[in-house]
């Protein structure tokens, strides 16, 4: 009999109850928010929250925009003894090109078997870039190409890293429906080349751990600060002579740009994402739930404020 795994526990686990209650609270707060407090919709970069919505979309940062990104992995409080906290910057080099640099830190959070801050350090490094190509075929489809490079660093615990280097070029497309401008369809083709490191390889359920292309597609529905996402992915390791596995994933979710009255007076943009993952692959059928928080801060605005407050 199939027993779905939610964060690796049964559906009746107390942690899941807390997450469900938090989700209900968030939705209730959103629906009760007044119109004047509703922030702008999520940008393409804000929508891409790993584990919630993986596909890259064509949009890039504005020219000369410099943003600080803070992205705690909230699910680590339950899944691991360590909390991962990626911190990085994203810079709009031009109207069509952006670059990203990010370092992932970790620390024991004290809610598991390891005392708080008993172990901490750096766990991963991520570099990326994306370039908009515009509407190449003049048919309403925005296009972009990009590149991501990720590798573990230091000696992170095995449960927060797969121990692999990932080299991933991609092509991304999206099209906004003329008859319904709050709907978008998207598609992407990515290739993940993996290389081993000195660390042991630790794979999640249905993670292939081999060179594999991924074809993804789906729809986005924008309603003010809320974007509903439906992402479908097919990943295959058949390009390798040693593997012949396929993974099919369906991931419905939502991304919410939090109104300022819920962000403790912060000038940054706080984004909350939550999603359901249904996957079928060589390890069988798997079900999971994710909830993540991301905070973006405009570096240039912070600099200007510091200059005004200076002597």
Roughly what is the average pLDDT, rounded to an integer?
Answer: 85
SSE ordering: HHEHEEEEEEEEEEEH
| Main sheet makeup | 12 strands, antiparallel, barrel
Task: Quickly give the structural class.
Answer: mainly beta
**Overall radius of gyration:** 20 Å
Superfamily at the CATH H level? Answer: monomeric porin ompg
Please name the CATH architecture.
Answer: Beta Barrel
Task: Give the terminus-to-terminus CA distance.
Answer: 69 Å
Describe the protein's architecture and organization:
This protein is mainly beta and 311 residues long. It has a single domain (14-309), classed as Beta Barrel (Porin). Helices cover 12% and strands 47% of the residues. It has helices at residues 14-32, 44-47, 76-79, 299-309, and strands at 66-70, 82-92, 97-108, 120-134, 141-152, 164-176, 183-196, 212-223, 226-236, 246-257, 269-281, 284-298. A twelve-stranded antiparallel beta barrel has the order 1-2-3-4-5-6-7-8-9-10-11-12. It is globular and about 55 Å long. The model is unreliable at 1-13 and 24-38 (pLDDT under 50).
């Amino acid at each position: 009999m199939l027993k779905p795994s939610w964060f690796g526990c049964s559906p009746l686990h107390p942690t899941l109850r807390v997450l469900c209650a938090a989700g209900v609270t968030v939705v209730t707060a959103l629906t009760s928010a007044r119109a004047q407090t509703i922030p702008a919709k999520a940008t393409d970069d804000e929508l891409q929250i790993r584990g919630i919505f993986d596909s890259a979309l064509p949009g890039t940062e504005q020219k000369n925009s410099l943003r600080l990104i803070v992205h705690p992995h909230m699910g680590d409080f339950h899944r691991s003894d360590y909390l991962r906290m990626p911190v990085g910057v994203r810079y709009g080099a031009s109207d069509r090109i952006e670059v990203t640099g990010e370092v992932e830190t970790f620390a024991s959070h004290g809610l598991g078997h390891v005392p708080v801050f008993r172990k901490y350090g750096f766990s991963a490094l991520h570099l990326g870039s994306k370039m908009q190509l515009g509407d190449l075929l003049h048919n309403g489809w925005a296009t972009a190409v990009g590149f991501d490079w990720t590798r573990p660093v230091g000696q992170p615990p095995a449960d927060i890293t797969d121990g692999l280097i990932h080299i991933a070029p991609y092509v991304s497309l999206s099209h906004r429906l003329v008859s319904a401008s709050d709907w978008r369809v998207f598609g992407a083709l990515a290739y993940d080349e993996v290389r081993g490191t000195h660390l042991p390889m630790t794979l999640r359920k249905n993670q292939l751990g081999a060179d594999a292309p991924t074809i993804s597609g789906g729809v986005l529905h924008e309603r003010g600060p809320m974007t509903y996402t439906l992402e479908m992915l097919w990943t295959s390791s058949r390009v390798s002579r040693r593997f012949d596995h396929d993974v099919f994933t369906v991931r419905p979710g939502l991304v919410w740009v939090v109104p300022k009255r819920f962000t403790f007076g912060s000038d940054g943009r706080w984004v909350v994402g939550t999603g359901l993952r249904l996957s079928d692959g060589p390890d069988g059928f798997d079900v999971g739930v994710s909830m993540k928080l991301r905070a973006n801060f405009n570096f240039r605005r912070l600099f200007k404020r510091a200059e005004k407050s200076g002597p």
